[in-house]
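Researcher: For the record, we're logging two predictions in this thread. I'll number them. Prediction 1 follows.
Model: Prediction 1, sequence and structure:
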Amino acid sequence: MPVRQALGRIGLGGALVLAGIAAPVVEAGPAYADGAPPPAITDDLGRTLILHGLNTASSAKGPSGLPWIDRDDVAREARDMGTNSVRYLIQWKNVEPEPGRYDDAYLDAVAERVAWYREQGMHVILDMHQDVYGPAACDGAGNGAPAWATVTDGLPCTPQDPWVLTYVQPAVLRAFDNFWNHRGTHPELRQRYAAMWRHVAERFADEPAVLGYDLMNEPFGGTRHFGFFEGPVLTPFYQQVVDAIREVDANGWIFVEPESLNANQGAPSSLGVVADPRPGTPRIVFAPHFYPGGVDLGGSYDGVAKALVRAQFALWKRNMPAAARRLGTPMWLGEVGGMGQGASGAADFTRDWLAMADDLGIGWSYWSNDPGSSGVIDGGGGPTIFTGLLARPYARAIAGPLTAMSYSAGTLTVSWRTVPGVGGPTEIWFPSAPRITSTDPAGTWTSAWDETRHVLSVWADPGTAAHTVTVTP
C-alpha cells in the first residue's frame, strides 16, 4: 500500500495546491496534447497490451508471503471482471531468509499460483513488495526485507497510527539509509537484493504467464528524497538490478517505480534513464502509483477535498506521461484505489481515474483483491461497488498502436493504427454479447465473439491505415 502523507484529509498533494505549487484546478485536456505518447507494452505478437488487474494481495504481506486466493478465485476474477493481469506480491524475506540461501519451496508455491493465472490467459507481474522496510525494522509493523538485511544500528522504533508515520521512526530511517548505502557502510545489501532478483527471474524466465518484474514497491529514500534520491541513488540501483535480471531473462518486462512521496500525488519525478542491455527494443516500464492525499487515509471525494484531488489528477496526468516520454518507456499504473465503498464520492473517484487511464491509453492494477470495503469482495464474500466499476469494457490487446480509447454510457470506442509486423486480432473484453461497427470499409474486416471469455476479436482491414471500432451491448 502507498506511502501516504499524514497531513489530514488533504494530504501532501492538497498541501502543494494550497502552497501554490500545483497547477490550477482545470481539466487536463486531451491525453498527450503536449507531445507524442510513450511507447507501449507489447505481447509476443507485437500487439499493444492494456493491462487491467488487481493487486494480490495484502495477505501476501504476512509470514508465509502467500495470498489468500485459490484457483476458483482467479477464475472468477477473469470471468466476472475481465482482468487480464495481476500484480502478484512476493517478499524478499521469503525468497532469501538467510544471506545467499534461497527458499525454492516458497518460489514453488508462488509458481503454483502463477499457473492459476496462466490457465486464465492472464499476465503476471511479480512485485517485490515492501512497506516500512520490513518486519524487523519496527516490531513487525512492516513487510519486505529479511531481518538479516535490516540494519537499524540499535535505533528505537514505535509503530505509529496512521501507519505511514512509522516510516519516519529512527530505526526505519536508518534501515533505509543503510540499504541505500547513504552512510557508505553497507554496499552488500543492494548487491544481495540484485542477486535475489536474479534468482527469482531465473526461476520464472520460462514461465509464459510471467510478463515481468516490479523491482521494488514504493521505494523510500530514508533521509534523502526527491532529486537527492531518485537520480543519484534509485536510478543506479535499478540499473544494478536490471543488469542482474538480464543475465538470466532477456525477454521479461521490468517495471521501475518512482519515489512514491512525489509521484503518488502527481508531483514530477526525477528518476533517470535505466538502460536495458537486452538485444532489440528495451523492455523497461515506468510504473507510478496514484493515491491523491484528499481521498487517502479515510478521505472523501466531495466538496473542497474533491477540488484538491482534481488538481492532483491534472498534475498526475501531466507529469507522469512526461516522465515516461523522457525515459522512453511505456507507462503502467501499478497501484490505485484507497477508498472504502462507504466513503463519500468513492464511485465517482473510481470512474474518474478509470477514465484518466483510458484517456492515457495505459493499464492499471487496483489495490486490491482482499476482502473488505475497499476491495472487490466484501466481508460476506459478495461484490463491492468496485467490482462492477472495474469490470469495464476495454481493448486488452490491440493490433497496432492505440490512438484513443473511451467508455461512456455503455459504449466502448477504440482507435488504433496499422503498422507492419503486428500479428493477431484486436481483442476487446465486453461483459455481454456486443454489437460492433467499424470505420473500415464493409467486407474488409471480420469479428468473432467468445461467449465463454467475453472476448470480441476483431481482424481489421490491413489496407486501411487507421481503424475505429464502436462496441455496444
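Researcher: Logged. Prediction 2.
Model: Prediction 2, sequence and structure:
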Amino acid sequence: MSVSPVVERPVMFQTWRDLTFLHWRYPAPVVQSMLPPGLTVETHDGAAWIGLVPFVMAGVRAPFVPAVPWLSRFPETNVRTYVRGPDGRSGIWFFSLDAARLAPVVVARLTYALPYHWSQMDVRIDGPRHTYRSRRHQHSDRRCDATVQVGRPIPEPSALETFLTARFRLYTVWRGGLVAADAQHGPWPLRTGELENLDQNLLEAGGLPTPSGDPLVHTSAGVLVRVSGWRRVTNDS
C-alpha cells in the first residue's frame, strides 16, 4: 500500500477539492508506447489505467506567501496514467492538464515542465451533483463536460481504488532528463459516484485511443497538499 512521503521543504501548498476520478482500462502496450524512456506503465488486473480527473485547485501559494484569491483558486482537469520510475517508485504521468488561469499555466510549463493548457472552465456544486465544463482557448473543440452525482462514502478502499488514487509522486521530462516531485497529503476521503453525462475528447487530444465502455467513477471532497521541488531520477534515487 502506498504511503504519502513527508515533504519537509515544500515549494508549493495546494488544496485539491471537489474531485471526480474517471478511469478506463487500456492495453498496457498501448500506454507504454506513449511513455518516455525510464518509465514503465503499472498495471492492475492485467490492464493499464487512464484517468480523467476534473477538480478545483484552491489555496495555491508558495511558502511564506499568502494565497491571492483570484490566482489561487481555479478549475483544473488532468489526463493521466500510473507508472513506475527507474528508481522503483510509483507515480503519475500526465498526458495533459487543463487549467482556467493563464498565469499558473505559464508558471507550471516553465518551472514544472508539465503539459498545461489554458482553458475556459467552470465547476458547479449543487448538493451532491457536480458539473464540470472545459474548453481550450486555442482549440475550442477540445473539451470535457461531465455531470456526476456524489455517492456513499468508501471507508475501506479496495486494492484497485488504492492503486488508482494513492499516488504521491509525479514524473515529467525536464531538459532531456526524467525528474520527479512528491506530493504529501492525507488519505483521500473517497466516495462512490454516478456519471450522469460525459462529453470529452481530452484523452484523444493527448494521443490516446478512444476509451471503450463506461468508466469507473469515484469522488472526493479533497485533500491538503504539500508539493516538493523537482529532482533528477536515477536508478537509485
